Amino acid sequence: MARQDFSFSHALRVRWSEVDMQAIVFNGNYLNYFDVAFTEYWRATGLPDVIAQSQAGLELFARKAVIEYHAPARFDDMLDIGVRCSELGRSSMRFVLEIFKGDELLVSGEMLYVHADSRLRKSEALPDDWRNVFIRFETGLPVKV
Q1: Does residue 64 lie within any of the structural domains?
Q2: What is the DSSP letter of 31?
């Protein structure tokens, strides 16, 4: 995707503790970067946070993570992480994420989350108001929660 196709982006600076012996970001840290950006995306939507979801007996389970490495990030690089909700299923949400340094694409990936009943550990339909928030957020319209 092009950078401008993302509905949301989050800036993050690479810290010394995140690089490996090759002086590049250790591959597992990119999932952390995705998670940080996804959390900020969620915050920007105004939807219930993880604490409110837990109190309601519901949560999002990570079902699938895919990462494709194109080029490395290095210590002190400023990264921009694009997040976009690309698909809404009955109970699932697919997000596309890409990490850029300037205009250079470093990493692309996707995360699939399932909305579930915490106690039963079974999928639960996405609430209609959540669907509306995602649709509005992704099209740049004001979000009403």
Answers
A1: yes
A2: H
The verdict on pTM exceeding 0.85 is: yes
DSSP 68-119: EE-S--BTT-EEEEEEEEEEE-SSEEEEEEEEEETTEEEEEEEEEEEEEETT
pLDDT in tens, 61-99: 999 999 999 999 999 999 999 999 999 999 999 999 999
Domain for residue 81, yes or no? yes
As a whole number of angstroms, the distance between CA 73 and CA 84 comes to 21
Residue 129 lies in a domain: yes
Q: Which CATH number covers residue 107?
A: 3.10.129.10
Helices and strands: H and E segment counts in the chain = 3, 6
Helix (H) or strand (E) holding 39: helix 29-45
Tell whether 144 is covered by a domain.
no
